[in-house]
């Protein structure tokens, strides 16, 4: 069960910044549009949803092997064609429809993806990953209420699914319900204290509430655990910039660019912050201390729930 958790935002002086508009486009976890005005930009890159060996399935027609190869090579439209053929020849194999759903989703065909995941669930109502990925598809399609129904069904199958809680956090963020979103991310982190995407998404919710100081802690933790993810570095940079730590923000933006040289939003952010003059009285900031403090806070939440 989700426990109640509220945060106390630390507000900046009114009028200093205009928050970039946030949207939701993941797995791909969350996404923010490039602002028209020169303000910090938050964005989120794809999160991995396919684990090694996940495409292992019962031996079937050659079309499965061909489709699987296309999927692994990211030729998703070819994979859709292959898995469509496979499911036509094996209409009672839930996994074939699951893979068709994944392929269609990656190919951008949300309607086909939704239909395939629902067919997989009609054949195997206990397949947790079909519920989770159907929830993602519905979120991408702008159907947060429908996604919530699906994700609640996932929790009835596995009440310890941190991913389900994380996606429920996305649902509430999409519905502009920040307290409920924070609560869901809190629950996800209690279940998995290393869930860097929940940390990142929690930071985004806090940024959207102008709680920039509070956003620093989960984002610093995400960066410490996964420094190679450009999205986390960029979003940490934005929180640092909005708290006046321009030098540290520039370092985070540079780290984002080093991790992904094509990350144009981080370059835009770096160009902007490089022209800003940091207040000499602001003091230094120790991101490692913030990160470790957030890790300890997660541990305290877990203790409180026992």
What report would you give on this structure?
The two termini are about 10 Å apart. The chain has helices at about 60-70, 75-90, 95-105, 110-125, 130-140, 145-155, 160-175, 180-190, 195-210, 210-225, 230-240, 245-260, 265-275, 285-305, and strands at about 20-25, 30. It has 14 helices and two strands. Helix 1 runs antiparallel to helix 2 and helix 10 packs across helix 14. With about 300 residues, it is mainly α. The protein is globular, with a radius of gyration of 20 Å. Mean pLDDT is about 85; it is low at about 1-40 and about 40-50. Strand 1 and strand 2 form a beta hairpin. A two-stranded antiparallel ribbon has the order 1-2.
Short structural summary:
The protein is mainly alpha-helical and 306 residues long. It has three domains: 61-124, Serine Threonine Protein Phosphatase 5, Tetratricopeptide repeat (Alpha Horseshoe); 125-192, Tetratricopeptide repeat domain (Serine Threonine Protein Phosphatase 5, Tetratricopeptide repeat, Alpha Horseshoe), CATH 1.25.40.10; 196-306, Serine Threonine Protein Phosphatase 5, Tetratricopeptide repeat. It has helices spanning 62-72, 76-89, 94-107, 110-123, 128-140, 144-157, 162-174, 178-191, 196-208, 212-225, 230-242, 246-259, 264-273, 287-305, and strands spanning 22-23, 31-32.
């Amino acid at each position: 069960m989700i426990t109640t958790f509220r945060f106390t935002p630390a507000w900046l002086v009114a009028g200093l910044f205009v928050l970039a508009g946030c949207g939701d486009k993941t797995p791909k976890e969350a996404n923010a549009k490039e602002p028209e005005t020169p303000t910090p930009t938050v964005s989120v890159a794809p999160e991995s949803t396919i684990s090694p060996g996940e495409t292992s399935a019962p031996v079937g027609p050659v079309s499965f092997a061909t489709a699987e190869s296309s999927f692994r090579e990211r030729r998703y439209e070819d994979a859709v064609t292959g898995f469509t053929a496979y499911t036509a020849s094996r209409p009672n194999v839930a996994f074939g429809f699951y893979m068709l759903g994944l392929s269609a989703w990656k190919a951008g065909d949300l309607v086909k993806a939704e239909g395939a995941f629902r067919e997989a669930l009609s054949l195997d109502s206990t397949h947790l990953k079909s519920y989770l990925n159907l929830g993602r598809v519905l979120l991408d399609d702008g159907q947060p209420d429908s996604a919530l129904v699906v994700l609640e069904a996932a929790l009835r199958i596995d009440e310890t699914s941190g991913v389900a809680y994380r996606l429920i956090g996305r649902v509430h963020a999409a519905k502009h319900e920040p307290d409920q979103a924070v609560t869901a991310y809190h629950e996800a982190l209690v279940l998995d204290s290393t869930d860097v995407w929940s940390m990142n998404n929690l930071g985004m919710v806090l940024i959207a509430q102008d709680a920039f100081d509070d956003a620093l802690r989960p984002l610093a933790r995400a960066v410490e655990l996964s420094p190679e993810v450009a999205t986390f570095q960029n979003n940490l940079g934005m929180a640092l910039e909005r708290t006046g730590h321009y030098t540290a923000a520039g370092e985070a933006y540079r780290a984002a660019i080093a991790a992904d040289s094509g990350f144009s939003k981080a370059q835009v952010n770096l160009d902007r912050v490089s022209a800003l003059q940091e207040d000499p009285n602001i003091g230094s900031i120790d991101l490692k201390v913030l990160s470790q403090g957030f890790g300890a806070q997660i541990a305290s939440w877990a203790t409180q729930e026992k």
